[in-house]
Amino acid sequence: MSRLLEGKVAVVTGAGQGIGRGHALELAKHGAKVLVNDLGSSVHGEGTGRAADDTVALIVERGGEAAANYANVADYAAAGEMVAQAVDTFGQLDILVNNAGIVRDSAIWNMDEADFDSVIAVHLKGAWAPSKHAAVHWRERNKANGAPVGGRIINTTSPSGIGCHSIGVSHHAGSRASNSAASNAAHRESASALARAGGRLEPVDLAIHGELIDSADF
């Protein structure tokens, strides 16, 4: 019996650990080939590493197919190269999960501009840039063969973006609320132009793992 996602290819950003790793493992469990993206930085967005390799190893160990990508998804060109890697490695892209995120929580009177900019870059541009490149890929595929491609974009957000605010998350709440607004706008687009190319955006709200808020500055 074929699995639910047999023959599908997924990209999951921020999948080296936590919720992102959970996304990747579950997609692979149901048959998808997964490009595991993670810059390998700390939860505060500092440094780089190879956390993606650990998730890839788990998928392969369980009989799945996966490859690692270490791009900074807030980098527009790098996000495009990530989508291209999925296509080059596995032949296509069907599912994009925008999950990457960092935490630099601080009360607004203590918050640095650099911390605000970093969170907005990863959470907001880091979702938009891969989505843009995925949409271009699906539109080109549709134009090439005239058939729907069935693409899906899923955004991990958080309760902060829908009104359940904690202290010290003005930047986080703003970026996640913007994700939801952008998701809804792109969803409307997917009902028209993107839908003709076989794409669709599915906004999904998920709670952020507690370990990300252990060292907030209040």
Structure description:
With 218 residues, the protein is an alpha/beta fold. Helices cover 44% and strands 13% of the residues. The chain has six helices and six strands; from the N terminus they run E-H-E-H-E-H-E-H-E-H-H-E. A six-stranded parallel beta sheet has the order 3-2-1-4-5-6, with helices on both faces. Strand 4, helix 4 and strand 5 (151-156) form a beta-alpha-beta unit. Helix 3 crosses helix 4 (113-145) and helix 4 runs parallel beside helix 5 (170-190). The chain is globular and about 55 Å long. It starts with 8 loop residues before the first strand and ends in a 14-residue tail after the last strand.
Could you give a quick summary of the protein structure above?
By secondary structure, this protein is of the alpha/beta class. The protein has 6 helices and 6 strands; from the N terminus they run βαβαβαβαβααβ.
